[in-house]
Design goal:
Layout (H helix, E strand, L loop, with lengths): L7 H4 L10 H9 L5 H5 L5 E5 L2 E2 L9 E15 L6 E8 L4 E6 L4 H4 L7 E11 L2 E5 L2 E4 L9 E5 L8 H15 L8 H7 L4 H9 L16 H26 L11 H8 L7 H15 L5 E6 L5 H14 L3 E5 L3 H18 L3 E4 L5 H13 L4 E4 L13 E6 L7 H9 L5 E6 L5 H7 L4 E5 L9 E6 L4 H13 L3 E5 L20 H12 L5 E4 L5 H13 L4 E4 L12 E7 L6 H8 L9 E6 L5 H12 L3 H12 L7 H4 L13 H17 L9 H21 L1
Parallel strand pairs: 2-3, 5-7, 10-15, 10-16, 11-13, 11-14, 12-13, 14-15, 17-22, 18-20, 18-21, 19-20, 21-22
Antiparallel strand pairs: 1-9, 3-4, 3-6, 4-5, 6-7, 6-8
Helix pairs in contact: 5-7, 7-8, 8-23, 8-24, 9-11, 10-11, 14-24
């Protein structure tokens, strides 16, 4: 939600509004509606067209109309079989008649329903047995000579304990407050861009003019809504563009354009880099050679080789006389990165170290000391790298792996350890272009397309809940033939459900361990790993699995990112329909890293057609970016897209990926504005700056909370 400029009318509490008592105030508070400004963004779900009194002979089924006539007859009765009592009037004019039916008619309305009275009705016309009727219409008297005023009436979403009529009257008062708010954008700019100001758009959305011709669109299909979506994206892009412009003038570190240490590291690898890796390295190298801080996102599919690129960048920083820090979200992944780095560091004479929370305190203190003195040149760790007790002698490059697993506050805390340091954030969760432009508008983006040579495709099969035994038969056969397997559960503990071949959709890891040992693959060494285990216990289990002493690893999603066990050839996911496609793709990426053909077995917890269809998308493609786009279409941006983790507010009017073209237009407009006036200092843009400042404040507050 995009903030509005500060204004006394908008900042006041809702209790000051006419019609808001204690009960309504409490109900609105529970919806997060505390000020008049909050209520401004409560959009109508639809409109009632009361602009014209429709004659009875023009009524058509499924139309919502304002109509009227004379009461010809009234009757009461009981609906057969249901025994519901009803009250009916027959309304007529000179040319036609229609019935109106109530199952609950308030007593005060019965006085207006005697024969011969003229009344006005509003409701939806239905056709039943070739007769037109209106069920539960609104009813008011129709005095001679009276015509109702033409009106477009907004209908707001239902809020418990607030009657629709009361809410409509409150929102009308809110709209009157909007009338006193000045335009946010300068008039000349709006005329040039052929746009209406956000304040005017909001007023129209809450109360469309009654004299507008033609059918009424739904609020979300109206021009005013489209304008608000554009402005919502524009304000976000202005905040990001201003941040980017500020970064561009900050003094940074200029590393050598050609790093001998990085080239030596790469030449010692037992494989050739892919074209995608070389392209990403070139972009990162150019950024690091420039005398301004690098801010780059490196994204690539699971197993595309991002770690090698990051290590080459770290060697470039060391070659330039600086330190590099690589932060991972879990100790498992941090230790794995360190094990990958260590032999190369020793070969090149570079001092590298590991700093994670699970180390003994004395050992952590010694490693912090080595880092502060500059003896350690590359450090790998978890969030321990950003604790207050950690100091760097000369941090030149900060690498954040699987950044979506961190709050952005943690990312900024690592950068704060050295304001001039270059920043490289990496993700193996492919981000659709739409969201990458929105969330990372202040970052340059590198994408590693394609997979390294030797990576084998993973065959994916989908099983319904009644087919669980068949899935485990495939797993057991592969383990018996020499492979290893992961079995992933959505949660750790049991809720007393059984896993018996027809089990339920949310089997716990503990249940599954018992099932695997008892029925799934009896005789195969199996163990459990999850996030609540002590780090050393978890590491011991992972080491045993990596060596092959454990053949089946039952786990939660703690193994989702970065875990590399070449012997693992089967991934079985229980309750797969409860995971997003991007997360399932991450889990699938844990297999297919060795010589054996690999399998991903997705066991659905329900047999719903929608869930089954979504899972079959997984079976149809191994392209993570394609899956990310599908996930976005199915689940929306929300948390799955990482908007909350990005620190950005949710979107009220814009809808991605539908509004991609609008997003591109907003980026272009933001760049044009910031290029001409980086700090929005022009007096005519005063209110625009106010909105962007408030948006920055909200983002920073979310970042601080995340950190």
């Amino acid at each position: 939600m995009i903030p509005l400029p500060s204004h006394p009318g908008l900042s006041q509490g809702i209790r000051n509004l006419k019609g808001v008592g204690q009960q309504i105030e409490k109900a609105l508070y529970e919806r997060g509606l505390r000020t008049v400004g909050d209520l401004v963004t409560l959009m109508p779900s639809r409109y009632q067209d009361r602009r014209r009194l429709v004659p009875l002979n023009e009524l058509v089924p499924e139309s919502e109309v304002l109509t009227g006539g004379v009461i010809q007859d009234t009757r009461q009765g009981v609906v057969p079989k249901t025994y519901r009592r009803y009250f009916e009037i027959i309304l007529y004019d000179e040319d036609a008649q229609v019935s109106a039916i109530w199952f609950r008619l308030p007593a005060h309305l019965r006085e207006t329903t005697s024969k011969g009275r003229r009344v006005i009705l509003f409701g939806r016309v239905q056709s039943y047995r070739h007769r037109l009727s209106i069920v539960h219409p609104e009813l008011v008297p129709w005095p001679d000579g009276y015509l109702p005023e033409a009106e477009v009436r907004p209908v707001y979403p239902e809020i418990e304990d607030v009657k629709p009529g009361a809410l409509r009257r409150i929102m009308a008062e809110v709209n009157r407050q909007l009338a006193s708010l000045p335009a946010i954008f300068p008039h000349a700019w709006l005329m040039e861009k052929k746009l209406s100001d956000p304040v005017e758009c909001l007023r129209i959305l809450h109360q469309p003019p009654a004299d507008r011709p033609g059918p009424l669109p739904k609020p979300q299909d109206s021009k005013a809504w489209a304008n608000m979506a554009l402005f919502e994206l524009l304000f976000l892009q202005l905040a990001l563009a201003r941040s980017r412009a500020r970064q561009a003038v900050r003094e940074g570190l200029a590393f050598p354009e050609r790093s001998v240490l990085a080239e030596t590291f790469l030449s010692g690898l037992p494989f050739e880099l892919t074209e995608g890796q070389r392209s990403a390295l070139g972009e990162i190298g150019r950024d690091m050679a420039a005398a301004k801080p690098m801010s780059r996102l490196l994204q690539g599919d699971v197993g595309s080789g991002k770690t090698v690129v990051a290590l080459a960048a770290a060697m470039t920083a060391v070659d330039g006389g600086r330190q590099a820090a690589i932060m991972a979200p879990t100790e498992i992944l941090a230790r794995q990165h360190f094990e990958t780095l260590l032999p190369h560091a020793r070969r090149l004479g570079v001092e590298a170290d590991l700093l994670v929370g699970g180390l003994p305190e004395a050992e952590k203190a010694a490693r912090r000391s080595a880092l502060a003195s500059g003896r350690t040149r590359i450090v790998v760790g978890t969030h321990a790298l950003i604790s207050e007790s950690v100091e760097y002698e000369s941090l030149g490059l900060a690498v954040i792996d699987e950044q979506h697993r961190f709050g952005v506050g943690q990312r900024l805390a690592l950068r704060a350890k050295a304001a001039q340091a270059d920043m490289l954030v990496m993700t193996a969760t492919p981000i659709p272009r739409t969201l990458a432009l929105t969330i990372y508008g202040d970052l340059d983006i590198s994408t590693i397309a394609g997979m390294p040579p030797g990576r084998k495709p993973v065959r994916t099969e989908v099983f319904g809940p009644e087919e669980r035994v068949a899935a485990y038969s495939l797993l057991a056969a592969e383990v018996a033939a020499g492979g290893q397997a992961y079995v992933v559960a959505p949660r750790i503990e049991s809720r007393d459900e059984s896993v018996d071949g027809n089990g339920d959709d949310l089997a716990s890891a503990m249940d599954l361990l018992d099932y695997v040992r008892r029925e799934g693959a009896p005789g195969a060494p199996a163990a459990l790993v999850h996030g609540r285990m002590k780090p050393d216990e978890r590491q011991t289990v992972m080491d045993d699995f990596r060596r092959g002493d454990i053949r089946i690893l039952v786990a939660t999603t703690v193994i989702e990112v970065g875990v590399d066990v070449p012997g693992a050839s089967v991934m079985l996911v229980e309750g797969a329909d409860h995971f997003g496609l991007a997360q399932l793709h991450q889990l699938r990426g844990r297999v297919g890293r060795g010589e054996r053909p690999s399998l991903c077995l997705l066991v659905a917890g329900t047999d719903e057609a929608e869930s089954s269809s979504r899972l079959r998308v997984m079976a149809g493609t191994s392209d993570g970016f394609e899956l990310a786009e599908e996930d976005l279409k199915i689940r929306g941006p929300g948390d799955a897209a990482g908007l909350r983790q990005s620190g950005l507010p949710g979107l009220t009017w814009a809808r991605l990926p539908r509004d991609l073209e609008m997003l591109l237009k907003a980026r272009e407009l933001a760049r044009e504005i910031i290029d001409n006036d980086r700090e929005l200092a022009e007096p005519s843009f005063k209110l625009v700056r106010e909105v962007v400042d408030e948006l920055d404040r909200r983002i920073q507050a979310e970042l601080a909370e995340a950190g």
